[in-house]
Amino acid sequence: MLSRLTRPQALTVCALPVVGLLAAAVFAPLPFSVAQPGMTANVLGQNKGTEVITITGAPTRTTSGQLRMTTIEATGPDASVSLGDVIDGWFATDRAVMPRDAVYPSGNSVTEIEQHNAEQMKQSQDAATRAALGYLGDSDKHIKVTLRLADVGGPSAGLLFSLGIVDKLDGDGSGGDLTGGRTIAGTGTISADGTVGAVGGVSLKTQAARRDGATVFLVPKAECSDARAELPKGLRLIPVTTLKGAVSALTALEKGKGAIPSC
């Protein structure tokens, strides 16, 4: 024989499964990564005690200012991200929630992902060297460029590598520095022909850049709107599509004359 439940008792019984489901949703792992502003490194100087750019076979310049590549830090591919983490990330300006597959190749082990990122970095460095030497017309010369950047993977430092090579070899072309003594930061892939490509996490990279003293940020033109979304005060955006365009914009900024594109 079943006894009749009072209304409060019935509501309590009905609510228990809902509470259980909500609790499970909050703590269940989700296919997302939470990212935040990462480290930056001056490609014209040293990173962890080692010169980032070493050039042999041609005279190099003593440079001033900085060209800082930027990164994001994301939860690992095997990390557990809960609904609470996702909600916190959505409402925080210094974090971003991204599909894990957009950050890490799907289905790969941590070791495979690290290897993939290292290979992308190597390809990016090779393309950056070819783009810089091609821009300077030095492709047929016996110039060797070595690029070292510890604990960073992926292709998004390509543009800054190329600019660093150009600055060390030629500067602004008339004796000055590309930076004009400023701290310039940026992001963007580079192809051997000097085309700049889009990357991810731009709004977080601008925050990392400003935190580390940058006043100018070079951004792939296609990502202007993302860069403006959480743009820190005091950071000027310069959109670029090619290495040649980036050099021209920095030279115009340094000399205080000429057209400087803006987002």
TrEMBL record:
> What domain of life is recorded for the organism?
Bacteria
Q: Which GO terms describe its biological process?
A: protein catabolic process; proteolysis
What GO terms are given for molecular function? ATP binding; ATP-dependent peptidase activity; serine-type endopeptidase activity
Domain Lon proteolytic, first and last residues per copy = 136-236
| InterPro entries for the chain | Lon_proteolytic (IPR008269), Lon_Prtase (IPR027065), Ribosomal_Su5_D2-typ_SF (IPR020568), Ribsml_uS5_D2-typ_fold_subgr (IPR014721)
Stated name of the protein: Lon proteolytic domain-containing protein
Q: What species is this protein from?
A: Streptomyces naganishii JCM 4654
